[in-house]
Design goal:
By secondary structure, the protein is α+β, with helices and mostly antiparallel strands. It has 24 helices and six strands. Strands 4-3-5-6 form a four-stranded antiparallel beta sheet. A two-stranded antiparallel sheet has the order 1-2. It is globular.
Length: 514
Amino acid sequence: MRLPDRLRQAYLVADLRSLALGRMGLASVLLANLLMRALVLRDFYTNDGLLPNHTLLWRPEQWPVFSLLFVASTPAMAATVFVLCGLVFVALLVGYRTRAAQVLSYLAVLSLNARSFFNGGDIVLCELALWSIFLPVGRRWSIDAALDRRRGAATDGATEVVAPALAVLLAQLFFIYLLNAIHKNGVTWRDGSAVHYVLHQDTIATSFGVWLRGWMTPGLSKALSWGTMALEWTLPVLLASPIALRATRRAALLLAASLHLGFVLCIDLEMFTPAMLACLPFLLRGEDAAAFERWWMARWSRLRVWPPLAGAVQASAALLDAMAALTPRPDPAATRAPIVVRARRAAVLVRRLILLALVALAAERLVAGNSRWRGPLWFERAEAYLMLYERWYMFAPEAPRTDMNVSIDAVTAEGRHVDPFNELASPGHPFPGKFIPPHLNQSPLFVEWALKVPFIPDYQQAFQEWVLRYPQRTGRPQDRIVSFRAYIVEDDSPPPGRRAPTHTRARQFYQYPE
C-alpha cells in the first residue's frame, strides 16, 4: 500500500459500526455521570447546597463559565434540567435525531461540569462529546438508520467513511497519554514508589486498593509504577503508528483497557477512567467491528426465542413502522435538486471549518498549557467556555505523599457534636475528627470540594450557611447549630515497606461564630 493510502487508512477512515459502538459507549458514560451527580443534586446543584448559583457566578472556579443549570435554584428546577439531560443522553444512546442529540449532549455535559467543580475526567468527557459531534455516529445501529430503511431512503451499504474528526480524536488520545508520561518525572516515579503513595490516598483508594496496599512491597510498587509509565509511553506510539495497523491498533486497545481497568480496581478517578474507556470503541478497525457484529448477531438470534424479549422486539418494530409512516419520505428528485445539493455541500463545509477552528484552538491551548506561552486572552476565554483544556499531568510530577480531608466539629442546641460534611461525604465515617480513616469512599464532588474550598475564602460564606441549614436536612429542630469549627486534616503517607500514616495534623480554616 502506498504511503498516502496507508496514512489515510490509519487516521481518516472510520468504520461506521465502530462509530456506533462509540456513540453508545459515550452515551452510557454520560448517563452514568448524570446519575452520579443526581445523587448529590441538592448539595451541588441548588441554592441550598455547598455551591449556590450566586456564589459560582460571582466567583467561578474557572472564568468564564457556561452552564444552563445556572437557571435552576431549587431541587425541583435542578431535577427538571437533569431529566431533560437524561432524555438527550438516551436519544444519543439509541441514535434518534442523532445530530441534534450530539450537540445537545455536549451542551448538557458542559453545563453539568461547569455548574460544580470539575476535574480531568470531566474534561475528557467534554472533549469526547465535542469531537464526536463531527463523526457520523448515527448511520449504523440507530433508530435513525432503522427509520431510513423503513422509509425506503437510499443507502449505499458502505461500512467505512472518511472522517477527519477521527484524526482529531486520535490526536487527543495521543497527547493525553504522552503528556501524562512526560510529566511523570519526579522522584516517586523514578524510584518506583508512586503506586505505593497513590494507594495511600484514602479519599480515592477503593476497597481493593486498601487491601492491596496492605500487601504492597517496594518491589511490587516498582513493578506497578514503572509498568504504568511504560504503558503511557507505549500507547502514543501505537496510536500514531500507520504501520501494521491492525496489530498496533489492537495492541493499543488491549493495553489502554488494561491500564484503565487497573485504575478502576485500585483508585476512584471519577469520570476519567469511564471517559477514556468510552474513547476506545472509536478506534476499532473494520475487521474487528465486523467480528463483533457477527458475534452479536449470533447471540441475538438465540435471545429472540425468549417470549418477553420477542414481544419487546415486535413492539419496537411496530413503533418504528409508525414513526416511519409519520415521517415524510424524501423525494428522490428533490434530494437531487441543485439547491439541495449545494446546501448539503455548504453544511459539510461549515462543519469542517468549525472543526478546523476548534483544532486550531486546541493546538494553541496545548502549547500554552504545557509551556511558558500564554497566548491571547480570548483564547483563554474560549478554552474556559468550551472546557477545552489540554494540560495533562495526573499524579505528576510526583505522586502525592500527603493525604487530606475536611473535618467539622459542630455543636447542636442539645449539645451533640456532629460533622455535617462527613455525614454526607463519608457515610461510613460520619464523625472522623482530626484523623483520616482508611477508605473514606467519598463522592467525587465532595472530594473536589474538600480540596478547593478551604483555600478559597470567597466560597466560605456559602459553606457557613450550608452548615447552619443542618436541621433543615435532618428534620430535627434540636439539631440547630450553635457553633462549629472546620479543619483541614492531613497526614503523611508511610514510606515504602510500611503501612501506617505518620504526622497526623489538623489546622482550622473556619470558625462560627467568629
